């Protein structure tokens, strides 16, 4: 795990990579189709908005501040990923409450060997956050690729046979109405494990 951390990007480096590619009309990954570039641009705007609007509740802030061990949150994502754009600003605000927590970023398509160790229902869904002990580099657990409540809603829509385009729109509406509350509930559970040796958040 240590070698992945060494090559991972800080949040500012990750954002710079995305912004530099957008100037060229590109996004991260090997698929440089017009639609991927469009979603890369759309998601960057979404992240900028959420960085200003996400509010972490006081109870979670206090819980984060009580973490006494150094942690690395290694996040596997891509610039074109809508769920990444939706959740990463909240993850960054949560981590910012405690200097013992560092966030680092890896691109999925450049690290499939690691990605394939953290599949969601057999798929390479992102983002995935791996919680790692900052001293021993022992993986403690994971979160992703969506907040539990929104992931359950996704499965409900899929079982109903809702087509992907409509499903994606409904998921985005759910994110908008949720206002980052579901991810905060997940991270309350995640932090219980981060402070000990076993994570309790759902994969």
What does this structure look like?
By secondary structure, this protein is α+β, with helices and mostly antiparallel strands. The model is unreliable at 197-203 (pLDDT under 50). It has a single domain (2-145, 182-194), classed as 3-Layer(aba) Sandwich (Glutaredoxin). A four-stranded mixed beta sheet has the order 2-1-3-4. Strand 1 (71-77), helix 5 (82-95) and strand 2 (101-107) form a beta-alpha-beta unit. It contains nine helices and four strands; from the N terminus they run ααααβαβαββααα. It is globular and about 45 Å long. It has helices at 2-7, 11-23, 34-53, 58-65, 82-95, 112-115, 148-159, 164-178, 181-194, and strands at 71-77, 101-107, 128-133, 139-144.
Radius of gyration: 16 Å
Number of strands: 4
Series of secondary-structure elements, N-terminal to C-terminal: HHHHEHEHEEHHH
Strand order of the largest sheet: 2-1-3-4
Described by the principal axes of the CA atoms, the overall outline is globular
CATH topology: Glutaredoxin
CATH superfamily annotation? Glutaredoxin
The number of distinct helices, counting runs of at least 4 residues, comes to 9
| Major beta-sheet overview | 4 strands, mixed
Distance between the termini: 19 Å
Strand content: 5-15%
Please state the structural category: alpha+beta
Low-confidence stretches: 197-203
The domain tally reads: 1
By CATH reckoning, the class would read: Alpha Beta
User: How does CATH name the architecture?
Assistant: 3-Layer(aba) Sandwich
Taking all residues together, what is the mean pLDDT?
93
Helix content: 40-55%
């Amino acid at each position: 795990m240590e070698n992945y951390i060494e090559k991972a990007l800080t949040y500012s480096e990750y954002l710079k990579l995305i912004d530099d590619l957008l100037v060229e009309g590109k996004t991260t990954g090997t698929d440089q189709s017009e639609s991927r570039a469009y979603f890369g641009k759309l998601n960057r705007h979404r992240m900028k908005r959420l960085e200003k609007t996400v509010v972490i509740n006081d109870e979670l802030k206090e819980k984060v501040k009580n973490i006494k061990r150094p942690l690395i949150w290694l996040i596997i994502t891509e610039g074109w990923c809508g769920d990444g754009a939706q959740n990463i600003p909240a993850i960054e605000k949560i981590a910012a409450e405690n200097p013992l927590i560092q966030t680092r970023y890896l691109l999925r398509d450049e690290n499939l060997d690691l990605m394939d160790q953290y599949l969601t229902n057999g798929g390479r869904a992102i983002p995935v956050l791996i919680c790692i002990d900052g001293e021993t580099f022992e993986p403690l657990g994971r979160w992703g690729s969506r907040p539990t409540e929104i992931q359950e809603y996704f499965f409900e829509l899929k079982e109903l046979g809702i087509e992907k385009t409509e499903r994606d729109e409904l998921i985005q509406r759910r994110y908008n109405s949720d206002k980052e509350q579901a991810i905060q509930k997940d991270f309350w559970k995640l932090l219980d494990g981060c402070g000990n040796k076993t994570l309790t958040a759902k994969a």
